[in-house]
Amino acid sequence: MKSTGQATLTLPAKPKANRTPRSRRWLVPVLSMVIVAFFLFPVYWLIITSLKTEAEIFQTHPSWFPEHIQFDSYLDQLSGSSYDLFKGFRNSGIIASGALCISTLLAIPASYGLARFRFPGRYLFLLLFLVTQMLPASLLLTPLFILFKHMGLLGASYWSTILANATAGIPFSIVTLRTYFVTLPKELEESAKIDGCNIFTTFYRIMLPIAIPGVVVAMVFSFLFAWGDLAYGMTFISKESMRPITAGIYTFLGFQSTSWNNTMAFGTVSILPVVLIFLFVQRYIVSGLTNGAVKG
Q: Which residues contact 262 (CB under 8 A, 6 or more apart)?
């Protein structure tokens, strides 16, 4: 309170700054590093096990680092003596690329319509897309198998697996892109209409280029869903040489014994394309996820 002669002026109290104590500032980065190490430990164990010998893998006290590093398991993968690795990459690339194209082409206009236009039942559509993401692949195998059988897509064909993986990628892409389109300002559409654009040219020339980070996020995760698929590839494709690379893991799982260093080397090599994709498009992934998280 401040006195000015006859009148009394009361100044509002300054809000207390919500500052984190300096002694606790180290807690967040340390906790973040512990969580990252916890999630990356299976990858570390996968790699070091692939570099160990079979005797070292089964010793009583497991070692945290190989005592004698061996690369025979990786040479065996590249030589193709046990499994044709490059054919597996080709099959998974065809399946993942096909699912990516279908899910992206269908999800972009659907998400834009759900984000920009008001019509009865749009929230019900969104709820159904969210529910379909919770359904396990094992629950969808039987109805999809019957459907593809009547369509004649089973057997020596990639189409059944591509369409099945696209059904898993479309709901995620729609939910992700809808959130991104909602965050874009409506003034852009109004300005485009003043300049003579209709709904389609506004979407194609104005809104879609701005939403490229969100589109890249949807494309990457659609590709990853299809790349990591095993159930659809094993069920719908009868020809073994056309199955995805994930099916190759059964080559190293024997009835009486399992070559664990070869199995781990196969797992390490098979995730390399996924790691490279994240390295090249991580800028778009971070931008797309953070922009879409501002407004739901």
A: 73, 76, 77, 82, 252
Q: One-letter amino acid identity for 78?
A: L
The token pair at 248 is 């190759």
Q: Which residues pair with 250 in a beta bridge?
A: none
- Tens-digit pLDDT profile for residues 108-139: 999 888 888 888 888 888 888 888 777 787 88
Does residue 52 contact residue 66 with C-beta atoms inside 8 Å? yes
**Whole-structure pTM value:** 0.77
pLDDT in tens, 139-158: 888 888 898 888 888 877 88
Q: What is the pLDDT of residue 94?
A: 92
Q: What are phi and psi of 19, to 5 degrees?
A: -105, 140
Task: Provide CB contacts within 8 A for 184, sequence distance 6+.
Answer: 207, 210, 211
Average per-residue pLDDT for the chain? 81
